Amino acid sequence: MTDNLLEVENLHTHFFTENGVIPSVNGVTFSIKKGEIIGIVGESGCGKSVTSLSILQLINKPGKIVEGEIRFHDKDLTTLSEKEIRKIRGNKISMIFQEPLTSLNPVFTIGHQISEAIRLHQKVDKKEAKQRSITLLSKVGMANPERQYHAFPHLLSGGMRQRVMIAMALSCNPELLIADEPTTALDVTIQKQILKLMKNLSSELNTSIILITHDLGVIAEMVDRVVVMYGGEIVEENDVYSLFENPKHPYTKGLLNSTPKIHQLKEKLQSIEGNVPTPDQLPSGCNFQNRCPFAMEKCREISPDLVASSDGSSVRCWLHQEKEVVNV
Amino acid sequence: MKKYLVKRLLQIIPVLFIISFVVFVLVYMAGDPVALMLPEDASESDREAMRAALGLTDPFYIQYFRFVGDLIQGNFGTSFRYNQAALPLVLERLPATFELAAASMVVATLMAIPLGIYSARKQNSLVDLFITGGSVLGKAMPNFWLGILLILLFAVNIQFFPVSGRGTIVHMILPAITLGTGIAAEMTRLIRSNMLEILNQDYIRTARSKGVSSNILVYKHAFRNSLIPVVTIMGLQVSHLVSGALITESVFSWPGIGLLLVQAVNGRDMAVVQAAVFVIALLVIIVNLITDLIYRLLDPRINYS
Question: Which domain does B19 fall in, by range?
């Protein structure tokens, strides 16, 4: 027994397309404790969303988890039958998605959609489910919840719809909430409100959160620990203060440098050269070597391992492994 | 909603005027009715007198206005063949045609919905290939050919169904299958492609993440969304149903408006042709209106106010 709520170990999710196998996620390992908030960051296409969908077994064909374990309360989710995983979805683990505008079914009222989630997992009658839905709607800050219960999604703004999604996700008091870019599609003021709402509800209900984002500002504000992903692999993991203070991996440094800071207004904003390679076009050796300013001969030949150091951080980079070795 | 309905009903009037003009021109150009009405040995002066008595010597526009004037009073003239007013003759055939149309729609829907959904759920499987191929075949088969083939097989060789006529529900089965097959084929393909698109939507993923089972996912969350274009097609298919009814009713001697129209055209019974075409056009307009109203029930985003 561990005190980890969820442990993802050596997860490989590949997509089997007509043009060959696309290895989107390659050996991802991380864990989350009860009540903890972790962030997964990285540019688009680095495997964040695929990782999160893999946890709830929501990967559609032609995608497939080919290797690895996802242990939730020490039970491997990858081995569960469809029926067993359905009891966990929306109940013990729930998800919020990036696109609030398209994530709600347009032909059902929002109240119906929240009640449905409640009635799927809890033995309550329609009336009780409705009552609970209305309570949830007011909890997520919807004005006039009795009336909004009967509203169709198209009548609500993006921010309001994301509140509905949160209400739906929290309807069965899940132990883990996976939020996949929950605020990316919203404007900045609404982003702030939604994040605050998630953070407050999580501490109130002691829900763990996996927050997936490419926005380091959101990470800094919300999470306890950060996992940085690149090319379907974890390249660095550390607690949020150390990561911002002392980023080790050149990719993390690049990400931090390309975030505008208020006191650097006049300096030119830095960017990471090049684009994220698609998973089927990763370079030889280290995935990041073709964009890395510190790349050495060795980086082009052999891929480094993710190495944990004594301070609880881990990093996948030859620069730091050399140092560790010297230090030891 | 009420305002919308009134607006739509008022829009029917100009459309009816256009239809009346087209119907009139067609018949006007079809030739001299007097030649058919009088015996062959009638003298030219008798013919002249007949034409004058019927107002056929008047200019085109006067004849048209007279036609519209009669039409407003519901008077399409008298059938030569039946020696009765044309409109009641057409209207009394309507129930038979409605019956056949409804039965065909039922056949089409009962075939198309399960096949389309199943085909989408098992995309690219052998069964899917079979259903998709079958729907192309169903669409390609002409009504008269399928009708005759069904008669040959199930009424002549296996003598299971009556060859033709209207009466019991057994009489209805072969014509309904004949008329329904093409519509079923079209609907199956449409439901399949809609379902495939909708099953990839974000809100389906949301529902799955809630723990909804795949049956409820398909039949509740996806199906209602996929119905919206299907209703459009069903509305459009009604015009196919009418043209199909002409052929199917002829093949099975089904005493509906289609058979009446075909016989009237053959017999140059122009009053009946005019009345039948006019009634059919009106039906198509009404069905389109009903289709638009059904959208609202299916899709809350559509608002007619």
Answer: 2-91
Among the partner residues A91, A102, A105, nearest to B221 by beta-carbon distance: A105
In angstroms, rounded to a whole number, what is the distance separating the alpha carbons of residues B175 and B165? Answer: 10
Element (H, E) at A318: helix A318-327
Residue at B281 is within a domain: no
Q: How many domains does chain B have?
A: 2
Please write the tens of the pLDDT for every residue from B53-103: 777 778 888 888 888 888 888 888 888 788 888 889 999 998 998 889 889
A119 and chain B in contact, CB less than 8 A: no
Return averaged pLDDT per consecutive 10 residues of chain A, 328 residues in all: 83 89 89 92 86 91 89 90 91 90 91 93 92 91 90 89 90 91 83 86 88 88 91 90 89 84 68 78 84 84 84 85 51
Q: Are residues B25 and B166 in the same domain?
A: no
Q: B145 and B181, same structural domain?
A: yes
Q: Is residue B297 part of a domain?
A: no
Sheet of strand A225-230, all strands in order from the earlier edge strand to the far edge: A93-96, A176-180, A208-213, A37-41, A225-230, A233-239, A314-315, A307-308
Q: Check if A106 contacts B (Cβ < 8 Å).
A: yes
| B56 and B99 belong to one structural domain | no
Among residues B208, B131, B135, the alpha carbon closest in space to that of A94 is found at: B208
Q: Specify the DSSP class assigned to residue B204.
A: H
The C-alpha of B215 sits at a distance from chain A's nearest C-alpha, in angstroms, of 12
Distance from CA of A238 to the nearest CA of B (A): 29
Domains in chain A and their CATH numbers?
4-92+173-284 (3.40.50.300), 104-171 (no CATH)
Q: Give the A window 137-196 contacts with B, CB below 8 Å.
A: 152, 154, 165, 168
Question: Is B24 within a domain?
Answer: yes
- Shortest distance, CA B2 to any CA of chain A (angstroms): 22
Cα-based distances in Å from A326 to A319, A323, B263 = 11, 5, 102
Residues B195 and B127 grouped into a single domain: yes
Judge residue B96's burial from the number of C-beta atoms within 10 Å of its C-beta, 0-12 exposed, 13-18 middle, 19 or more buried. Answer: buried
Q: Do residues B34 and B177 share a domain?
A: no
Same domain, B182 and B79: no
In this structure, the answer to whether residues B61 and B106 fall within a common structural domain is no
- Name every residue in B having a CB less than 8 A away from some CB of A: 200-203, 205-214, 221, 224-225, 298-301
Contact status, residue A66 vs residue A13, Cβ threshold 8 Å: yes
Which chain A positions have a beta carbon within 8 Å of B211's beta carbon? 86-91, 117, 120-121
Same domain, B110 and B74: no
Domain with B250 in it: what CATH number?
A: 1.10.3720.10
Contact B210 A89 (CB under 8 A): yes
- Nearest 5°: CA angle at B94, between B93 and B100? 105
Beta-carbon separation of B298 and A107 below 8 A: yes
Q: How near does any CA of chain B get to the CA of A125, in Å?
A: 17
Say whether pTM exceeds 0.90: no
Question: Which ipTM score applies to this complex?
Answer: 0.84
